[in-house]
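During the no-cost extension, the postdoctoral fellow (Dr. R.K.) reprocessed legacy sequence entries with the updated structure-token encoder. One reprocessed record is reproduced below for audit purposes.
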Amino acid sequence: MEEIQSQSDNYRSSSSSASSPASRVPSSNFFYLRKPGSIRQPISFEDSPEWEDTDTDLRIEEGGDSINAATTPASPSLSKINSGSLPSPRVPEGVVIPRKIAGASVAWKDLTITIKGKRKYSDKVIKSSTGYALPGTMTVIMGPAKSGKSTLLRAIAGRLHPSARMYGEVFVNGAKSHMPYGSYGYVERETTLISSLTVREFLSYSALLQLPGLLCQKKSVVEDAIHAMSLDDHANKLIGGHCYMKGLPSGERRLVSIARELVMRPRILFIDEPLYHLDCVAALLMMVTLKRLASTGCTLIVTIYQSSTEVFGLFDRICLLSNGNTLFFGETLACLQHFSNAGFPCPIMQSPSDHFLRAINTDFDRIIAMCKNWQDDNGDFSSVNMDTAVAIRTLEATYKSSADAAAVETMILKLTEKEGPALKSKGKANNATRIAVLTWRSLLVVSREWKYYWLHLILYMLLTLCIGTVFSGLGHSLSSVATRVAAIFVFVSFCSLLSIARVPALMKEIKIYTCEESNEHSSTIVFLLAQLLSSIPFLFLIAISSSLVFYFLVRLQDQFSLLMYFVLNFFTTLLVNEGIMLIVAALWQDVLGSLLTLLCIHVIMMLSAGYFRMRNALPGPVWMYPMSYIAFHTYSIQGLLENEYLENSFAVGQVRTISGFQALQNVYNISPEYNSKWRNLLVLFVMAMGYRIIVLVLLFLLGSRKMWLLKRFKCNRDTTDTS
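Re-encoded structure tokens follow.
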């Protein structure tokens, strides 16, 4: 205790020297929240401004230049702000005021979360955390990196990783129940948006995926979400830009990801790091927008690493974490009082969040070690010479014995003593609607993504043009058979190899599916069917354009039926190849790993396709069985050669002729049966469907395992609660 007291005294003295008494008068832009239920006497402490006892309510006037504060009676559902002016973006005239939302109270008691191997010295990521969030307020979970902010947020929302184990209780409207679909929204720290869609289009498709009912009703919901997130000026702009047009800034992109969850009009909204990668202006705009959203009645729980003074003034309640320990929970202004009582007052010229993180971030110990024997021009580094471990122990011990902790316990008892109205699940769009929406959305994306699709088509045309010109002018003599076989092999193999350039686009689709599936906006079967339907027009366009160029340059058999079979064979080959790419991309979830794996797969299939060495002469183990039967090149090339040569014959001398099958006997193995080319086409079609079924089973098993582990985790939690 003597060590703690000495550290506190040293820090108090250094803080006092940092600001003179004359500088302690707060300026008009230096403000904090004034909350209901806080201390009713004027609050003043060393190195902090004095505060009025006036409760204020946030009100945004149309056409105004600032957020004005009006005196109102204390209400737990309204956010409070000091009467100092806070600059904010001008609200457009005629703006639609967001409709009120019936929020829900959330309380968590003695939450302890363990994840094996997560921490170096202990598996406990969160240790006995207790807190609550009320409708119409914004509760912020703050702490340094790896303090457990996101883990606590996921635990409250019921979205913990299956490997995590949770002890404790979470109450929603006083009841220990899981939040059903549509009653809450969860925004990840990093979300995937579709850059080739406008903001309004993106939200419209999200509404069609999430909501049942008529289209006109969904349009009003989309407009409400756009207004709520202040995206009116960006509604018709492409999210990622196009050609020479710039896309949305990072702040507006973050607002779009939040607006996607607002389409369901959730009663509770969880946001992980809304200020992630945002500058100070974008961060302030984000928090002002969220503050206005909270004023409509929605319950907001967000995580934040650090904030400016202005942003800090918009918080209603703060949960301060460090290494999983709760150092404070309560009103924002009371947190400043708590640090002052513990011996760590906030200097007048320092941001509160900077001060908090300076005191509890153990990474500063490395700076202390660096500066221990180092002095600057003005003397020593006494302002940073504070042991964070001592500060954390002091703050934790002070909080546990404080009136703030007792007030939290009292509020938890009030919120849980009587169950309120249960949250009801909202209806979903049916699978047929979702398939149609995803298909149409993908087709729209294909028409706009020139880099992934139209450039790909141009590359196909250039490749087939090169192959066709190299093998042009072969004629139809017996001596040209071997060269024509080489041309067909090169065409099928190289064009299939070029298809792996679509891996980044497929990876992007899988990421979007993962994001939508985690929020129950889509499902595996819906995604795969929509992906198949949307890829068919593009692949058929590639197949028919490439086939026409190659077919006429190499001068294959001049019959329309044979040409149509060639196009159909190559189109099915592309479908098979895309199925393989989906499997590899789903397993790797990485572009570089997927490209290297697919390259190896294609090379192995090309070696076993029967061109470099005839199929019946391949070594039995591995190469003939099973590789030559797995390689789709084998069936594609066989079908194309049978299509070209089975009805053809060649003259040998002036008397004898041989069939096309006999001409190919020493070049490539084909079947003499006329219908064998259709059998090869059927095998390709079965492989195309089979690979997609494998993707379906793979994603289903991964999803089922995740759901099974989640149910097991919930059962364990319920058993723990009962015991």
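Residues 11-96, 377-384, 707-723 have pLDDT under 50 and may be disordered. Residues 454-716 form one domain. The remaining legacy entries will be reprocessed before the final report is submitted.
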